[in-house]
Amino acid sequence: MTRINATQSDATDPLRHFRERFDLPDGVIYLDGNSLGALPKTVKARVAHTISEEWGTQLIRSWNTAGWVHLPQKVGGRIGRLIGAQENSVVAADSTSINLFKVLSAALSLNPGRSKIVSERENFPTDLYIAEGVARQIGQGHRLVLADKPADIPAMLADDVAVLMLTHVNYRTGYRHDMAAITEAAHDKGILVIWDLAHSAGAMAVDLTGADADFAIGCGYKYLNGGPGAPAFLYVNPRHHGGFRQPLSGWFGHRAPFAFEASYAPSNSIDQYLCGTPSVLGMVAMDEALALWDEVDMDALRAKSVALCDFFIQEVDSFAGEFGLTLVTPRQADQRGSQVSYSCDNGYAIMQALIARGVIGDFRAPDIIRFGFTPLYLSFAEVSEAVAILRDILSTRAWDAPKYKVREAVT
Ligand SMILES: *Cc1c(COP(=O)(O)O)cnc(C)c1O
Protein backbone atom coordinates (compact mmCIF):
# COMPACT_ATOMS: atom_id res chain seq x y z
CA MET A 1 0.00 0.00 0.00
CA THR A 2 1.30 3.46 -0.83
CA ARG A 3 1.68 5.72 2.18
CA ILE A 4 -1.07 8.24 2.70
CA ASN A 5 -0.09 11.85 3.32
CA ALA A 6 -2.54 13.97 5.32
CA THR A 7 -1.89 17.37 3.74
CA GLN A 8 -2.08 16.02 0.23
CA SER A 9 -5.22 13.98 0.95
CA ASP A 10 -7.03 16.96 2.47
CA ALA A 11 -6.08 19.19 -0.45
CA THR A 12 -7.63 16.83 -2.97
CA ASP A 13 -10.59 15.68 -0.86
CA PRO A 14 -13.78 16.16 -2.95
CA LEU A 15 -15.96 16.03 0.20
CA ARG A 16 -14.10 18.61 2.28
CA HIS A 17 -16.73 21.33 1.83
CA PHE A 18 -19.28 19.23 3.76
CA ARG A 19 -17.43 19.93 7.00
CA GLU A 20 -18.89 23.45 7.22
CA ARG A 21 -22.40 22.00 7.09
CA PHE A 22 -21.93 20.53 10.57
CA ASP A 23 -21.73 22.10 14.00
CA LEU A 24 -18.66 20.71 15.72
CA PRO A 25 -17.08 22.23 18.81
CA ASP A 26 -13.55 23.62 18.66
CA GLY A 27 -10.92 21.41 20.18
CA VAL A 28 -12.77 18.19 19.44
CA ILE A 29 -11.70 15.50 17.00
CA TYR A 30 -14.85 13.51 16.64
CA LEU A 31 -14.26 9.82 15.96
CA ASP A 32 -17.62 8.64 17.24
CA GLY A 33 -20.01 9.54 14.43
CA ASN A 34 -20.65 5.81 14.12
CA SER A 35 -22.37 5.98 17.50
CA LEU A 36 -23.94 9.45 17.45
CA GLY A 37 -23.56 11.45 14.25
CA ALA A 38 -22.71 15.16 14.44
CA LEU A 39 -25.31 17.91 14.17
CA PRO A 40 -26.01 19.23 10.66
CA LYS A 41 -26.34 23.02 11.07
CA THR A 42 -29.74 23.38 9.41
CA VAL A 43 -31.37 20.93 11.83
CA LYS A 44 -31.53 23.51 14.61
CA ALA A 45 -33.56 26.02 12.61
CA ARG A 46 -35.79 23.34 11.15
CA VAL A 47 -36.67 21.85 14.53
CA ALA A 48 -37.16 25.34 16.01
CA HIS A 49 -39.54 26.12 13.15
CA THR A 50 -41.46 22.92 13.74
CA ILE A 51 -41.80 23.75 17.41
CA SER A 52 -42.78 27.40 17.15
CA GLU A 53 -44.63 27.61 13.83
CA GLU A 54 -46.04 24.17 13.30
CA TRP A 55 -46.73 22.95 16.82
CA GLY A 56 -47.01 26.38 18.46
CA THR A 57 -49.15 28.09 15.84
CA GLN A 58 -50.72 25.63 13.43
CA LEU A 59 -51.29 23.08 16.18
CA ILE A 60 -53.14 19.93 15.10
CA ARG A 61 -53.57 21.29 11.57
CA SER A 62 -49.87 20.62 11.00
CA TRP A 63 -50.48 16.90 10.58
CA ASN A 64 -51.84 17.90 7.18
CA THR A 65 -50.48 21.40 6.46
CA ALA A 66 -46.89 20.59 7.44
CA GLY A 67 -47.08 17.01 6.21
CA TRP A 68 -46.30 15.46 9.58
CA VAL A 69 -48.38 12.42 8.76
CA HIS A 70 -46.24 11.55 5.72
CA LEU A 71 -42.86 11.92 7.43
CA PRO A 72 -42.29 8.17 7.98
CA GLN A 73 -42.55 7.56 4.22
CA LYS A 74 -40.70 10.75 3.24
CA VAL A 75 -37.78 10.04 5.55
CA GLY A 76 -37.87 6.38 4.55
CA GLY A 77 -37.57 7.37 0.88
CA ARG A 78 -34.50 9.48 1.58
CA ILE A 79 -32.83 6.61 3.40
CA GLY A 80 -33.94 4.17 0.70
CA ARG A 81 -31.78 5.91 -1.87
CA LEU A 82 -28.68 5.38 0.29
CA ILE A 83 -29.29 1.68 0.80
CA GLY A 84 -30.35 0.68 -2.70
CA ALA A 85 -33.99 0.07 -1.85
CA GLN A 86 -36.85 0.04 -4.34
CA GLU A 87 -39.39 2.91 -4.29
CA ASN A 88 -41.84 2.76 -1.38
CA SER A 89 -40.06 -0.02 0.43
CA VAL A 90 -38.55 1.86 3.40
CA VAL A 91 -40.22 3.63 6.31
CA ALA A 92 -38.73 5.46 9.28
CA ALA A 93 -40.27 4.40 12.57
CA ASP A 94 -39.65 3.40 16.15
CA SER A 95 -36.22 2.07 17.15
CA THR A 96 -33.96 -0.46 15.48
CA SER A 97 -34.78 -3.01 18.18
CA ILE A 98 -38.53 -2.63 17.63
CA ASN A 99 -38.17 -2.74 13.87
CA LEU A 100 -36.21 -5.96 14.18
CA PHE A 101 -39.06 -7.42 16.22
CA LYS A 102 -41.46 -6.57 13.39
CA VAL A 103 -39.43 -7.89 10.47
CA LEU A 104 -38.15 -10.99 12.26
CA SER A 105 -41.71 -11.92 13.24
CA ALA A 106 -42.82 -11.34 9.66
CA ALA A 107 -39.94 -13.36 8.23
CA LEU A 108 -40.62 -16.32 10.51
CA SER A 109 -44.29 -16.33 9.55
CA LEU A 110 -43.26 -16.41 5.88
CA ASN A 111 -41.18 -19.51 6.44
CA PRO A 112 -43.43 -21.86 8.44
CA GLY A 113 -42.21 -25.33 9.32
CA ARG A 114 -38.66 -24.10 9.91
CA SER A 115 -37.58 -23.36 13.45
CA LYS A 116 -34.07 -21.88 13.45
CA ILE A 117 -32.90 -18.30 13.40
CA VAL A 118 -29.18 -18.14 12.60
CA SER A 119 -27.05 -15.21 13.71
CA GLU A 120 -23.62 -14.53 15.19
CA ARG A 121 -22.48 -14.53 18.80
CA GLU A 122 -20.65 -11.30 17.97
CA ASN A 123 -23.81 -9.57 16.72
CA PHE A 124 -24.96 -6.47 18.57
CA PRO A 125 -26.67 -7.78 21.73
CA THR A 126 -30.04 -6.10 21.19
CA ASP A 127 -30.44 -8.04 17.93
CA LEU A 128 -29.84 -11.30 19.78
CA TYR A 129 -32.08 -10.31 22.69
CA ILE A 130 -34.94 -9.42 20.33
CA ALA A 131 -34.53 -12.72 18.49
CA GLU A 132 -34.73 -14.58 21.81
CA GLY A 133 -37.88 -12.64 22.65
CA VAL A 134 -39.50 -13.35 19.29
CA ALA A 135 -38.70 -17.07 19.55
CA ARG A 136 -40.19 -17.23 23.04
CA GLN A 137 -43.26 -15.28 21.94
CA ILE A 138 -44.01 -17.65 19.07
CA GLY A 139 -43.54 -20.61 21.40
CA GLN A 140 -43.35 -23.24 18.68
CA GLY A 141 -39.85 -24.51 19.27
CA HIS A 142 -38.16 -21.64 17.47
CA ARG A 143 -34.62 -21.04 18.57
CA LEU A 144 -31.65 -18.85 17.93
CA VAL A 145 -28.44 -20.56 16.79
CA LEU A 146 -25.21 -18.57 16.87
CA ALA A 147 -22.10 -18.77 14.71
CA ASP A 148 -18.83 -18.23 16.56
CA LYS A 149 -17.21 -16.60 13.56
CA PRO A 150 -18.30 -15.42 10.10
CA ALA A 151 -16.59 -18.34 8.35
CA ASP A 152 -18.88 -20.78 10.17
CA ILE A 153 -22.08 -19.31 8.74
CA PRO A 154 -22.28 -21.03 5.31
CA ALA A 155 -22.20 -24.50 6.89
CA MET A 156 -25.06 -23.52 9.20
CA LEU A 157 -27.45 -22.69 6.37
CA ALA A 158 -29.47 -25.91 6.60
CA ASP A 159 -33.02 -26.87 5.58
CA ASP A 160 -34.46 -26.22 9.05
CA VAL A 161 -33.29 -22.59 9.12
CA ALA A 162 -36.06 -20.06 8.62
CA VAL A 163 -34.14 -16.80 8.89
CA LEU A 164 -30.55 -15.63 8.70
CA MET A 165 -30.20 -12.41 10.67
CA LEU A 166 -26.89 -10.58 10.38
CA THR A 167 -25.45 -7.16 10.95
CA HIS A 168 -23.66 -6.09 7.77
CA VAL A 169 -20.80 -4.34 9.61
CA ASN A 170 -19.89 -5.63 13.05
CA TYR A 171 -20.20 -2.94 15.71
CA ARG A 172 -17.04 -3.91 17.59
CA THR A 173 -14.59 -5.21 15.03
CA GLY A 174 -15.81 -3.36 11.94
CA TYR A 175 -15.83 -6.65 9.99
CA ARG A 176 -18.12 -6.45 6.96
CA HIS A 177 -20.02 -9.37 5.46
CA ASP A 178 -20.36 -9.93 1.72
CA MET A 179 -24.06 -9.13 1.61
CA ALA A 180 -24.79 -10.36 -1.91
CA ALA A 181 -22.93 -13.66 -1.58
CA ILE A 182 -24.39 -14.58 1.82
CA THR A 183 -27.91 -13.62 0.80
CA GLU A 184 -27.63 -15.79 -2.28
CA ALA A 185 -26.30 -18.75 -0.31
CA ALA A 186 -29.19 -18.44 2.15
CA HIS A 187 -31.81 -18.13 -0.59
CA ASP A 188 -30.44 -21.29 -2.21
CA LYS A 189 -31.55 -23.09 0.97
CA GLY A 190 -34.93 -21.35 1.16
CA ILE A 191 -33.79 -19.09 4.02
CA LEU A 192 -34.97 -15.49 4.34
CA VAL A 193 -32.35 -12.86 5.17
CA ILE A 194 -32.52 -9.82 7.44
CA TRP A 195 -29.66 -7.32 7.33
CA ASP A 196 -29.02 -4.84 10.14
CA LEU A 197 -27.49 -1.76 8.51
CA ALA A 198 -26.78 0.16 11.73
CA HIS A 199 -23.11 0.62 10.77
CA SER A 200 -23.62 0.70 7.00
CA ALA A 201 -26.34 3.25 6.20
CA GLY A 202 -24.56 6.55 5.56
CA ALA A 203 -21.15 4.90 5.90
CA MET A 204 -21.11 3.47 2.38
CA ALA A 205 -23.48 2.75 -0.48
CA VAL A 206 -25.56 -0.34 0.22
CA ASP A 207 -27.37 -2.24 -2.52
CA LEU A 208 -30.30 -4.11 -0.99
CA THR A 209 -31.97 -4.55 -4.37
CA GLY A 210 -28.81 -5.90 -5.98
CA ALA A 211 -28.31 -8.32 -3.09
CA ASP A 212 -32.00 -9.26 -3.22
CA ALA A 213 -32.25 -8.92 0.58
CA ASP A 214 -35.61 -9.77 2.15
CA PHE A 215 -35.62 -7.32 5.05
CA ALA A 216 -33.35 -4.68 6.53
CA ILE A 217 -33.32 -2.40 9.55
CA GLY A 218 -30.99 0.28 10.84
CA CYS A 219 -30.37 3.34 13.00
CA GLY A 220 -30.99 7.00 12.25
CA TYR A 221 -28.62 8.46 14.82
CA LYS A 222 -25.32 6.95 13.67
CA TYR A 223 -23.86 7.81 10.23
CA LEU A 224 -27.16 9.37 9.13
CA ASN A 225 -26.84 12.12 11.79
CA GLY A 226 -30.52 12.11 12.80
CA GLY A 227 -29.81 13.03 16.43
CA PRO A 228 -29.96 11.16 19.74
CA GLY A 229 -32.68 8.52 19.69
CA ALA A 230 -33.60 9.41 16.08
CA PRO A 231 -36.23 7.25 14.38
CA ALA A 232 -34.86 4.03 12.97
CA PHE A 233 -35.70 2.59 9.55
CA LEU A 234 -37.01 -0.63 8.13
CA TYR A 235 -36.92 -2.12 4.63
CA VAL A 236 -39.13 -4.85 3.25
CA ASN A 237 -38.54 -6.28 -0.21
CA PRO A 238 -41.65 -5.45 -2.29
CA ARG A 239 -42.25 -9.15 -2.96
CA HIS A 240 -43.13 -9.53 0.74
CA HIS A 241 -45.29 -6.43 1.15
CA GLY A 242 -48.79 -7.83 1.17
CA GLY A 243 -48.21 -11.46 1.96
CA PHE A 244 -48.36 -11.61 5.74
CA ARG A 245 -48.68 -9.54 8.91
CA GLN A 246 -46.23 -8.09 11.33
CA PRO A 247 -47.50 -8.42 14.91
CA LEU A 248 -47.37 -4.79 16.12
CA SER A 249 -50.69 -4.12 14.41
CA GLY A 250 -51.17 -0.51 15.42
CA TRP A 251 -53.46 1.93 13.67
CA PHE A 252 -50.75 3.55 11.53
CA GLY A 253 -50.31 0.18 9.81
CA HIS A 254 -54.03 -0.14 9.16
CA ARG A 255 -55.11 0.33 5.55
CA ALA A 256 -57.34 3.24 6.61
CA PRO A 257 -56.28 4.60 10.02
CA PHE A 258 -58.81 7.40 9.97
CA ALA A 259 -61.75 5.15 9.15
CA PHE A 260 -61.54 4.11 12.83
CA GLU A 261 -62.77 0.61 12.14
CA ALA A 262 -63.10 -1.75 15.09
CA SER A 263 -61.06 -4.47 13.46
CA TYR A 264 -57.49 -4.41 12.11
CA ALA A 265 -57.07 -4.63 8.36
CA PRO A 266 -53.40 -4.37 7.38
CA SER A 267 -52.16 -2.01 4.73
CA ASN A 268 -50.65 -4.10 1.95
CA SER A 269 -47.87 -1.57 1.40
CA ILE A 270 -44.75 -0.88 3.47
CA ASP A 271 -47.04 1.25 5.68
CA GLN A 272 -48.11 -1.92 7.48
CA TYR A 273 -44.79 -1.70 9.30
CA LEU A 274 -45.77 1.50 11.04
CA CYS A 275 -47.33 1.04 14.43
CA GLY A 276 -48.41 4.23 16.22
CA THR A 277 -48.05 8.00 15.99
CA PRO A 278 -44.58 8.97 14.77
CA SER A 279 -42.28 11.06 16.95
CA VAL A 280 -42.58 14.24 14.87
CA LEU A 281 -39.68 16.24 16.34
CA GLY A 282 -37.36 13.31 15.81
CA MET A 283 -38.68 12.75 12.28
CA VAL A 284 -38.21 16.41 11.38
CA ALA A 285 -34.62 16.44 12.63
CA MET A 286 -33.95 13.26 10.70
CA ASP A 287 -35.57 14.59 7.52
CA GLU A 288 -33.44 17.72 7.67
CA ALA A 289 -30.26 15.78 8.45
CA LEU A 290 -30.88 13.59 5.42
CA ALA A 291 -31.34 16.51 3.03
CA LEU A 292 -27.62 17.02 2.53
CA TRP A 293 -27.17 13.42 1.43
CA ASP A 294 -28.81 14.36 -1.89
CA GLU A 295 -25.50 16.06 -2.72
CA VAL A 296 -23.21 13.26 -1.59
CA ASP A 297 -21.46 11.10 -4.17
CA MET A 298 -21.50 7.72 -2.43
CA ASP A 299 -18.45 6.45 -4.33
CA ALA A 300 -16.45 9.45 -3.13
CA LEU A 301 -17.79 8.83 0.40
CA ARG A 302 -16.58 5.24 0.40
CA ALA A 303 -13.23 6.14 -1.15
CA LYS A 304 -12.59 8.71 1.60
CA SER A 305 -13.81 6.34 4.30
CA VAL A 306 -11.34 3.69 3.13
CA ALA A 307 -8.52 6.23 2.95
CA LEU A 308 -9.23 7.64 6.43
CA CYS A 309 -9.23 4.14 7.94
CA ASP A 310 -6.11 3.11 5.99
CA PHE A 311 -4.36 6.27 7.13
CA PHE A 312 -5.25 5.72 10.78
CA ILE A 313 -4.10 2.08 10.65
CA GLN A 314 -0.89 3.09 8.87
CA GLU A 315 -0.03 5.69 11.51
CA VAL A 316 -0.96 3.57 14.55
CA ASP A 317 1.01 0.62 13.15
CA SER A 318 4.23 2.43 14.01
CA PHE A 319 3.62 2.11 17.78
CA ALA A 320 0.74 -0.38 18.25
CA GLY A 321 3.01 -3.31 19.08
CA GLU A 322 5.08 -1.37 21.59
CA PHE A 323 1.95 -0.49 23.62
CA GLY A 324 0.00 -3.73 23.23
CA LEU A 325 -2.64 -2.53 20.78
CA THR A 326 -3.95 -5.32 18.54
CA LEU A 327 -5.85 -4.36 15.42
CA VAL A 328 -9.13 -6.32 15.35
CA THR A 329 -10.49 -4.65 12.19
CA PRO A 330 -9.63 -6.28 8.86
CA ARG A 331 -6.77 -4.55 7.05
CA GLN A 332 -8.40 -5.37 3.76
CA ALA A 333 -10.80 -2.54 2.98
CA ASP A 334 -13.45 -4.69 1.28
CA GLN A 335 -13.87 -6.62 4.52
CA ARG A 336 -14.60 -3.67 6.76
CA GLY A 337 -16.96 -0.79 7.36
CA SER A 338 -15.93 2.74 8.37
CA GLN A 339 -14.38 2.16 11.77
CA VAL A 340 -11.11 0.90 13.21
CA SER A 341 -10.87 -0.98 16.51
CA TYR A 342 -8.04 -2.24 18.67
CA SER A 343 -8.11 -4.61 21.59
CA CYS A 344 -5.85 -3.65 24.46
CA ASP A 345 -5.46 -3.73 28.22
CA ASN A 346 -6.79 -0.65 30.02
CA GLY A 347 -8.86 0.29 26.98
CA TYR A 348 -11.49 2.07 29.04
CA ALA A 349 -8.93 4.31 30.76
CA ILE A 350 -7.08 4.97 27.50
CA MET A 351 -10.32 6.09 25.87
CA GLN A 352 -11.21 8.33 28.81
CA ALA A 353 -7.77 9.95 28.59
CA LEU A 354 -8.28 10.48 24.86
CA ILE A 355 -11.67 12.07 25.42
CA ALA A 356 -10.14 14.39 28.03
CA ARG A 357 -7.76 15.57 25.29
CA GLY A 358 -10.62 16.12 22.85
CA VAL A 359 -10.30 12.92 20.84
CA ILE A 360 -13.71 11.31 21.12
CA GLY A 361 -14.02 7.63 20.30
CA ASP A 362 -15.56 4.97 22.48
CA PHE A 363 -14.95 1.76 24.39
CA ARG A 364 -16.75 -1.54 23.90
CA ALA A 365 -16.41 -4.19 26.58
CA PRO A 366 -14.43 -6.17 27.29
CA ASP A 367 -11.32 -4.62 25.74
CA ILE A 368 -11.99 -2.71 22.51
CA ILE A 369 -11.20 0.92 21.76
CA ARG A 370 -13.18 1.99 18.73
CA PHE A 371 -12.71 4.86 16.30
CA GLY A 372 -15.36 5.78 13.75
CA PHE A 373 -14.51 7.63 10.53
CA THR A 374 -17.21 9.83 9.05
CA PRO A 375 -16.09 11.13 5.66
CA LEU A 376 -18.42 14.14 5.62
CA TYR A 377 -16.87 15.96 8.53
CA LEU A 378 -13.42 14.50 9.22
CA SER A 379 -10.12 15.60 7.75
CA PHE A 380 -6.90 13.67 7.39
CA ALA A 381 -5.16 16.36 9.46
CA GLU A 382 -7.51 15.62 12.34
CA VAL A 383 -6.79 11.91 12.07
CA SER A 384 -3.10 12.68 12.15
CA GLU A 385 -3.53 14.78 15.28
CA ALA A 386 -5.68 12.10 16.95
CA VAL A 387 -2.93 9.55 16.35
CA ALA A 388 -0.31 11.88 17.86
CA ILE A 389 -2.46 12.34 20.97
CA LEU A 390 -3.04 8.58 21.25
CA ARG A 391 0.67 7.98 21.04
CA ASP A 392 1.38 10.61 23.66
CA ILE A 393 -1.20 9.15 26.06
CA LEU A 394 0.29 5.68 25.66
CA SER A 395 3.92 6.71 25.99
CA THR A 396 3.35 8.99 29.02
CA ARG A 397 0.84 6.54 30.56
CA ALA A 398 -1.46 9.53 31.05
CA TRP A 399 -4.36 7.08 31.11
CA ASP A 400 -3.05 5.57 34.35
CA ALA A 401 -4.94 7.94 36.64
CA PRO A 402 -7.84 7.02 38.94
CA LYS A 403 -10.19 9.53 37.29
CA TYR A 404 -9.97 7.67 33.98
CA LYS A 405 -10.99 4.36 35.53
CA VAL A 406 -14.42 5.35 36.85
CA ARG A 407 -17.01 3.68 34.63
CA GLU A 408 -19.86 5.85 33.43
CA ALA A 409 -23.28 4.41 32.52
CA VAL A 410 -22.58 4.85 28.81
CA THR A 411 -19.14 3.82 27.65
C1 LIG B 1 -26.60 0.68 17.40
C2 LIG B 1 -27.21 -0.65 17.06
C3 LIG B 1 -28.51 -0.97 17.45
C4 LIG B 1 -29.28 -0.02 18.33
O1 LIG B 1 -30.61 -0.38 18.49
P1 LIG B 1 -31.61 0.65 19.18
O2 LIG B 1 -32.91 -0.03 19.16
O3 LIG B 1 -31.56 1.91 18.38
O4 LIG B 1 -31.10 0.93 20.55
C5 LIG B 1 -29.04 -2.18 17.04
N1 LIG B 1 -28.32 -3.03 16.29
C6 LIG B 1 -27.06 -2.76 15.91
C7 LIG B 1 -26.31 -3.73 15.08
C8 LIG B 1 -26.46 -1.57 16.30
O5 LIG B 1 -25.20 -1.31 15.96
TrEMBL record:
EC number(s) recorded for this UniProt protein: 3.7.1.3
Cofactor: pyridoxal 5'-phosphate
Catalytic activity: 3-hydroxy-L-kynurenine + H2O = 3-hydroxyanthranilate + L-alanine + H(+); L-kynurenine + H2O = anthranilate + L-alanine + H(+)
Molecular function terms, GO-annotated: kynureninase activity; pyridoxal phosphate binding
Keyword Amino-acid biosynthesis attributed: no
Keywords: Hydrolase, Pyridine nucleotide biosynthesis, Pyridoxal phosphate
Residue numbers bearing the N6-(pyridoxal phosphate)lysine modification: K222
One Gene Ontology term from the biological process aspect of the record: quinolinate biosynthetic process
Gene3D superfamilies in the record: Aspartate Aminotransferase, domain 1, Type I PLP-dependent aspartate aminotransferase-like (Major domain)
Coiled coil location: none
InterPro entries registered for this protein in UniProt: Kynureninase, PyrdxlP-dep_Trfase, PyrdxlP-dep_Trfase_major, PyrdxlP-dep_Trfase_small
Family: Belongs to the kynureninase family.
NCBIfam families tied to this protein: kynureninase
Protein name: Kynureninase
